[in-house]
UniProtKB/TrEMBL annotation:
<feature type="domain" description="ABC transporter">
    <location>
        <begin position="47"/>
        <end position="282"/>
    </location>
</feature>
<protein>
    <submittedName>
        <fullName>ABC transporter ATP-binding protein</fullName>
    </submittedName>
</protein>
<comment type="similarity">
    <text>Belongs to the ABC transporter superfamily. Siderophore-Fe(3+) uptake transporter (SIUT) (TC 3.A.1.21) family.</text>
</comment>
């Protein structure tokens, strides 16, 4: 009887799960090509924002009130600005988590709305501060965006992002379960996983939200080298938190209250802009030791 009751309960929860899957599948949402083909090559993308306006749809002031800037193909542009200036919104619009309200965003001259969503997202890699880790093994976490990457590239990406020390520590190496049901990873380790994923994918556009903390000097230098290397093959747009990053950027765009306040190189902006000088002395000076 106990077995029957247990079986019945299991069957009920199984049916409920099937119903939920059905519900999710029938939701109107993003097109079915969401994950698209991960096409190799294609070269770095040129990105333009022309007078872009966007509001999140609440009562607050729009997040973008006419944002204009350009990132040349293969270039590296740093976004800086006070909290709430609209930096992360640039990334959300490029990933098409939201559609902009006015103005134009183009990638390689083609309107972002004309890009099949799957192709667009397959061309981008987003490395964020708190990169998500999925329940699964470390290997699965590294390969989920580039499942066909050969073993030698995986080993190389692991070594270059200094994840090899983590792998050596884990009981089953790359095949150790991580995330929710496995070993908990630090923020710095999660970001290194995200960068290793980007290395494996070779994106046409890398969106990088630089960490504000968590990395020691050795890892910091390793990541800097990897990012500079990625920058040789990709266009890079980085929300910068480091002076060393803005110094490497071809151009720095200073955002303030949803508008581009000014743009230039570090030296130009230090000489010409009060707000930039202040940001350089506070936000950007917080180098990790
Ligand atoms: P920070 O440096 O603090 O991350 P930011 O420059 O990246 O700031 P955004 O995150 O782009 O700024 O935010 C711009 C404006 O949009 C802010 O007023 C913010 O509160 C608002 N905003 C951002 N994300 C959302 C959201 N998902 N829903 C509603 N409003 C949002």
């Amino acid at each position: 009887i106990g077995g029957l009751v247990e079986g019945w309960t299991g069957l009920q929860s199984g049916l409920a799960a099937v119903r939920r899957i059905d519900e999710v599948e029938s939701l109107p949402g993003e097109p079915a090509d969401l994950f698209g083909e991960l096409k190799e090559g294609g070269g770095p993308l040129r990105v333009t924002f022309q007078d872009v306006t966007f509001g999140y749809g609440d009562e607050r002031a729009p997040a973008h009130k006419g944002v204009t800037f350009e990132v040349p193909a293969g270039g590296m542009v740093a976004l800086v600005g006070p909290s709430g200036a609209g930096k992360s919104t640039v990334f959300s619009l490029l990933e098409r988590f939201y559609d902009h309200d006015g103005g134009t965003i183009t990638l390689d001259g083609r309107d972002i709305r004309d890009w099949p969503l799957g192709e667009l997202r397959a061309s981008l890699a987003y490395v964020e501060q708190d990169a998500p880790v999925l329940a699964g093994t470390l290997r699965e976490n590294l390969l989920f965006a580039a499942p066909d990457a050969p073993e030698d590239r995986l080993t190389d990406a692991v070594a270059r992002t200094r994840l090899d020390t983590l792998v050596a520590r884990l009981p089953e190496g790359l095949d150790t379960a991580v995330g929710h049901r496995g070993v908990t990873l630090s923020g710095g380790e999660r970001q290194r996983i995200a960068i290793a994923r980007a290395l494996l994918r070779r994106p046409r556009l890398l969106l990088l939200d630089e960490v504000t903390s968590q990395l020691d000097a050795v890892n910091e230098q390793a990541l800097r080298d990897v990012i500079l290397e990625l920058a040789e093959q990709s266009t890079v747009l980085v929300i910068a938190h480091r002076l060393s990053t803005v110094r490497h950027a071809d151009r720095i765009v200073v955002l303030e209250e949803g508008r581009v306040r000014t743009a230039g190189t570090h030296e130009e902006l230090i000489a010409s802009d009060d707000l930039y000088r202040e940001l350089a002395a506070t936000q950007l000076a917080a180098e990790v030791r």
